[in-house]
Amino acid sequence: MHRAWTLIAIGAAVLALGTAPANAATTYQLAGVEVQSSPATFVGTLVDQPGWWNATILHAPLNTTPGGTTSITGGSFSITTFSPYAVVGGTIAGGLITAGPVTVFNPWSCRQRFGVVGSLTAGTFAGVLTHYGFPGGGACVALAASFVGSATL
Prior knowledge:
There is one protein chain. The chain contains one helix and eight strands, in the order H-E-E-E-E-E-E-E-E. The protein has one domain. An eight-stranded antiparallel β-barrel has the order 1-2-3-4-5-6-7-8. It is mostly beta strands. The N terminus is likely disordered. The N and C termini lie far apart (47 Å). Helix content is 11%, strand content 67%.
């Protein structure tokens, strides 16, 4: 009988530990720039929190036609916070980039925004990618790019 009570006590402890609540996901606000176009590599800062982030996003050839979509096929994502110090990240599992309209300011400058949504192995990210450049062939030929959005890990 003592053995049965011991097994029941162990089983109850395992059950109690196994049903402990998981750590809550944290949402980080991001702002950054694209530092390399192929593969698309971004670095930036966390908004309202000391830290930085970086991402490498693999995707099909970018469809710049307004309303056109481009599949995100993979990549990596990392966030480093300084207070408290922590590094979190993961693999980009997939996502979608949707082209917005081209805004032409004058014959030598333009802007095009893209909606970006993606999934990570343990979270999500979303935001707006903005290309800055010059008009050419109905598109905005990018010279620089920025990203503003969020990631939940």
